[in-house]
Amino acid sequence: MSTPPFLTLPACARSVRLRTVRGEFAALHAVPEGIARGTALLVPGFTGSKEDFIALLAPLAADGFEVYAVDQRGQYETGGPDEVDAYALEEFSLDLLALTAELRARAGSRPPHLVAHSFAGYVARDAVLRATGTPLPWSSLTLLSTGPAAIGHGETERAKLLLAALPAMTLEEIWQAMQEMDEAGGVSVRLEPEIADFLHRRWLANVPAALTAMAQRLISEPDRVDELAKAPLPKLVLSGETDYAWPVELQAQMALRLSAEHVVVPGAGHSPNAERPEGTAVSLSAFWTAHEDDRATCS
């Protein structure tokens, strides 16, 4: 899971609820000074939340972009029904289309730049392929630390362990078991108490049915890169240099197949947005600026 470096919102940001035709979604909203150059929608991955992007809010707003980071259905402060069918990929992608429509309504029809981390890459891909009309309702698509198909072998085994545990254990029991596994494997990291408490609270706020559906998808998602390559949308593949979920080489190959730019963030693993937010923000801002919609007003 992504670990945000801090939790205090910058002065440019606040917590909001986004009302859509698909229901309400918890979000963080950052506003630049003056007229925004563009809008961005940031979508977190498996076991994540909007806070995974908190360190990007200030630098992106400073570059003139209005930014929304959201919790997907079943995540943290958005919540959702306790039925696995409610978390089919189609449901997530229809949510994303509804969120996109809401942001466009708020921004005077300006299409937002879409950033999808990890599992959300599947969601964004499906939403793009479901979108109708020309042009598409986004200015660009960034696939952040995600891959062409199912996750790698090591993470598949962890997902299968979680799937086996969810019907038999509470989320608190699973949390404690995960902490013990990390300590036994020597991968436990000492965190500030505030961050450790947040990660615990966020985990307990997950809807178990959502965790089940997402984990099942992570180990079974087919390769749909060739379909996505046909979508007329500027694309960026952004990777940490030591991603453990999808090898960077695999992400580079995906970028080639998409005719997309590929940027590797030094010193980052699976969550460049949280681990190296400065470099990630620079890369996103440069990409968005190069592909900003002609209708956007520059500040």
Automatic annotation (TrEMBL):
Task: Spell out the Gene3D superfamilies in the cross-references.
Answer: alpha/beta hydrolase (3.40.50.1820)
Which InterPro entries does the entry mention?
AB_hydrolase_1, AB_hydrolase_fold, Carboxylesterase_BioH
Protein name per the record? Pimeloyl-ACP methyl ester carboxylesterase
**What residue stretches are annotated with the AB hydrolase-1 domain?**
41-281
* Listed Pfam families: Abhydrolase_6
**Coiled-coil stretches:** none
Give the originating organism: Streptacidiphilus jiangxiensis
The terms under GO molecular function for this entry are: catalytic activity
